[in-house]
Structures are given as structure tokens and as C-alpha cells.
Amino acid sequence: MAIAGVILFAKSIKLTTKFTSALEIPVEFIEKNVKLRGRLRHITEKGLEVEHIPISFPFLSSLQRKWQSNDVLLVRLAGVELTPSAMVWLQEELKPSQMMWFQLLGRNDLVLDCLVLINKGRFFSVCLNEEILRQGLGRTTRIEGLHHESPLYWKLHKRLLQAELKALKKNKGIWKEESYFEKLKDRINNNKFVQKLKQLANWLRIRI
């Protein structure tokens, strides 16, 4: 009876349901930022194609697999604008059929914006969103799906900015390539003579 109760409870909150489309995931899961487990299938320019692995019970697992589809969810790394080098890095770092956890932050049609975590050893996990920024392989962007003024938004956004700052300080990735040119550009834009020329150009544009 106890086991049957646990199974019924799990079903009632869809813990044993395998999601094969972002639209199948209950709104409550998105709002509560639930973590789901999955297996990597493909890395694409649009995001990670992940097969959802729901909670299973040993005596029901074979029956569950029999009726479950192999369709995948499209998971996007929330708050990160990836560079082409990031795609290469992901393909090198992630193993085929890599197991991962993805925390739901938002949903845009068929795309899930998530924090993605992978295990590194038994007791250590890495957040891919932060790691890509630490490697200088992306830029921090708005976290889609979360309210801009919510505490969670700013908590996660701060973590991503700190990761990006580490890459900037170490001149890694895009910051190594752009640091000199960005500094040169800032110096030119802040030059008083250049600013006067811009003001003159704007004045002439209005007059002509």
C-alpha cells in the first residue's frame, strides 16, 4: 500500500511522466523552476537536444520504457550568448549520452531556457552556463523567462556576470581577442577632439 501510494503521488505531480515536448511541461514546473534530469542527444546551434529521463521505479521501469517516446527537448543555456567557439567547446567537453540536470527558468514556444548542470566526479557538478562564460566563450545576456525584478533573476544574473568577469580579468577567449581593440576604441571615443568632431558632424547633418 505504501509503495502504491508513492507511485500515485509521483504520477499526480507528473514526476514519472516523460516530457517529449516543451509544451507538455506543466506551467507549475516552469514557475517553480523545477530541475529535470536528461541525457544529451545532440548539440545544435539552437541549443542542446536532451532526452528527458523521468523518475522510474525498478519494478515499472521496463513497462515505462516500452511506452515512452525517444523525442527530445530543446534546451537553451539561459543568460548566455554563445560564440562559435562555444559550440566547439561543448562538443569536446560533453560526452555522447552525457547525463545532466536542467533547471527550468522559462519557456519560449518549443525552447526551454535553463541552467544546465553536469557532474564532474561523484561530488562535484559544473554549471555549463557559468563555465562557458568563465572560459570566455560567450557573453552575459538577459535571462529569458524570469521577471527582471525578481530576486532569483538578479541572483543568477550576478553569478553569470561574476563568471564573465573572471574571463575578462584573465583575457580568456573573446576577451583575449577583443581586449586591446576595445580599449583602443574606448580611448578614441573618449578623446575630446573626436567628441568635438562628432558634435560638428551632428550639427552639419541637422543644418543640411
Folded structure, characterized:
The protein is an alpha+beta fold. It has helices at residues 2-12, 27-31, 61-67, 84-93, 128-134, 151-169, 174-190, 192-207; strands at residues 35-43, 48-52, 73-77, 80-82, 99-108, 111-119, 125-127, 138-140. The strands form 2 sheets. It has a 5-stranded mixed beta barrel with strand order 1-2-3-6-5. Strands 4-8 form a two-stranded antiparallel sheet. Strand 1 and strand 2 form a beta hairpin. Helix 5 (128-134) packs parallel to helix 6. The radius of gyration is 23 Å and the shape is elongated. The chain starts with a helix and ends with a helix.
Outline:
The protein has 208 residues and is of the alpha+beta class.
What share of residues are in beta strands?
15-25%
Strand numbers in spatial order across the main sheet: 1-2-3-6-5
Order of helices and strands: HHEEHEEHEEEHEHHH
| Helix percentage | 40-55%
Amino-to-carboxy terminus distance? 86 Å
- Count up the helices: 8
Which runs of at least 5 residues are low in confidence (pLDDT < 50)? 1-13
Please summarize the sheet with the most strands.
Answer: 5 strands, mixed, barrel
How large is the radius of gyration?
23 Å
Anisotropy-based shape: elongated
Could you report the average pLDDT, rounded to the nearest whole number? 83
Structural class from helices and strands? alpha+beta
Tell me how many strands there are: 8
